[in-house]
Design a protein that fits this description.
alpha/beta, VC0802-like, 9-stranded mixed sheet, 6-stranded mixed sheet, elongated, cytoplasm, tRNA-uracil-4 sulfurtransferase activity, THUMP_ThiI, tRNA-binding
Length: about 400
Amino acid sequence: MEDIILLKQGEIVLKGLNRKSFEMKLVSNINRRLKPFGKFRVYSVQSAIYVEPQSDDCDMDGAYEAVKTIFGIVAISRAAACEKDKDALLETAKRYLGDALSRAGSFKVETKRADKSFPMTSIQLSQYVGGLLADAYPHVRVDVHNPDFTVHLEVRDYAAYVHGPSEQGAGGLPVGTNGRVVSLLSGGIDSPVSTYMIARRGVSVIPVHFFSFPYTSELAKEKVVTLSRLLTKYCGRLRLKVVPFTHIQEEIREKCPEELFTVIMRRFMMRISAKVAEYNGCKAIVTGENLGQVASQTLEAMAVTEACAGLPVLRPVIGLDKREIVETAVKIGTFDTSILPYEDCCTVFTPRHPRTKPRLDDVVAAESALDVDALVNEAFENIDRIDIEM
């Protein structure tokens, strides 16, 4: 009997002629994520991916937890492989799932017969194995509608497999199949969630953080480094770009109307992010903006902010309420870090009465007091790059 991990692909199966490239990327992502846990053979057959340990010292528990966070997978099971024989399946079910069956009040057997040459239909195999399991565990009743435990049998090309109920995978598409974006990453709750959500659509992410030392502390930067590290289990390796933003904010404070501080600041973020995007071959900018949450996130303010971007601006959390964003932050493990009391640059020089419906002409006129290109180039040339590993 061989213990393996069985993974089911999600929407990849709906792809057409380029489906193979999605599968290859997913297998590559799995191989890279599993390196710390030993040597595994990972391969794809019939919309399923098999993760087989190649030595006894492989950490199967660690590998199982790791694959839960890989985008492109919708279901995960620990399974036992056996011969494609009805009695081998029965004995494997007893050995592999016996303890779980003994603790259950009721059970049923479900069969998937991908190998149509197998001499029994799915229903016949379920009835055969289910009947003999009922004899072997007489205290556990059969319930085909609402069982406490389900025994899954799968007859596939190379072998048959036995497993219990599957766990939900991360879903989405494999990271690296849908291009690359720059994602603005503050120290708050929303931007790590938006980064996670865009990565779930198969996008590779370059996080960008705007740092205003000494108005924001080194602890604030370390907070963002920690958030980036927490995101690597979903996004893969990251290279965080830390943009020095102090000079720009001081110039805005000295030369621009106070009520426009925030929108002008965010326009500089867009310009610098667009420059980072161009340099790294990115096709869009991602933000954690949420409609109506703060003064700079009205429709009017966002329109003025993105007018200078020159790239699509994607806002994955724009329609969520705060409760939904917080729930996602808790789920992906970023919430506790996000609420640490270290301010980010967005809280520096906050206007007392920000304009919620700025006009583009007024903002452009206010920016004319600044040497915009020189400030953008200065910040870009002094970006600090931090490689983030898991």
